[in-house]
Design brief:
Number of helices: 2
Largest sheet: 7 strands, mixed
Shape: globular
Low-confidence stretches: none
Order of helices and strands: EEEHEEEHE
Strand content: 25-35%
Mean pLDDT: 92
Strand order of the largest sheet: 4-5-6-3-2-1-7
Helix content: 10-25%
Number of strands: 7
Distance between the termini: 38 Å
């Protein structure tokens, strides 16, 4: 079962990652000023990921595969990691469709980032 993890970047902005069962990042997005905005996007993902038309299949200049998940108004909700082949990208999209609607949300945004001295 996939899950969403909310955390903060070093600049204080919120981000989310959608992880698979092995804890690997499938897609993510950052740059949210507050947690409420991040949660709103996650709820939008849960609704929009059920529709295949919301997944925009893309290729890099090196012909590697990835996808963007977009909302009804065209806003990018998430950007996937890079996949070496189309079949893996398609399998990942199917996983997102099946698991995202009921995925749990873990909030790690209050964790303190430790620095070495």
């Amino acid at each position: 079962m996939g899950k969403f993890v909310i955390s903060k970047n070093t600049n204080g902005e919120f981000k989310y990652e959608f992880l698979n069962d092995n804890g690997e990042v499938i897609f993510e997005k950052s740059g949210y000023r507050n947690k409420a905005m991040c949660l709103k996007v996650i709820e939008s993902i849960k609704r929009n990921a059920q529709e295949d038309s919301k997944f925009y299949r893309k290729r890099t200049a090196d012909n590697e595969c990835y996808f963007n998940l977009k909302s009804s108004n065209g806003q990018i909700l998430g950007i996937s990691k890079i996949y070496t082949d189309k079949a893996t990208r398609e399998n990942t999209i199917q996983f997102v469709k099946i698991t995202s609607a009921n995925a749990s949300i873990e909030d790690h945004s209050k964790r303190v980032i430790q620095t070495a001295f």
